[in-house]
Design brief:
153 residues, alpha+beta, two-stranded antiparallel sheet, 6 helices, globular
């Protein structure tokens, strides 16, 4: 089991490192597309909220949003009630990337769900419980490495 889990983690890591084509000659990283996805799902959220959802620091998300803004995917506006607070919105290009990624995820999630239909509800419940334990161990490891509790997303 340990070998399989390690293989899955390594395969996922390789996938996350691949560029994602958005249009002719335009690619984004997995981190960038996940940031765009989070902004799209939380349109007008402040950077602290986006950072919390993604489980990264506000500084890291500020840099990422700035980079995406320069590339034309995101725009930042000041909050109407707080001049220091920045809110993030997707541009038309950002929404195009969001939709492409959303379709990709839906296609692959539907494939996974159709394959899981062969398992019984108790088998799915057991697998879910195992995944919860794995997630807890990963959270604990991250907390140990980074010295803080990781937010649930």
């Amino acid at each position: 089991m340990t070998g399989r889990l390690l293989r899955i983690i390594n395969k996922h890591y390789r996938i996350e490192e691949l560029p994602i084509p958005i249009s002719e000659g335009v690619e984004v990283t997995a981190r960038e597309i996940h940031c765009l996805q989070t902004i799209g799902q939380n349109e007008g959220a402040n950077l602290k909220t986006i950072a919390s959802i993604l489980g990264v620091s506000k500084s890291a998300i500020s840099q990422m949003v700035g980079k995406l803004e320069k590339r034309g995917f995101v725009r930042k506006d000041r909050a109407p009630d707080n001049d220091k607070e920045l809110l993030a919105f997707l541009t038309e290009s950002g929404w195009d990337a969001f939709k492409i990624h959303q379709e990709f995820h839906e296609r692959h999630m539907n494939n996974l769900l159709s394959r899981l239909e062969e398992f019984s509800d108790p088998q799915i419940a057991t697998a879910s419980a195992i995944m919860a334990v794995v997630e807890t161990v990963v959270d604990e490891r991250m907390a140990e490495l980074f010295g803080k509790k990781i937010n649930d997303t």
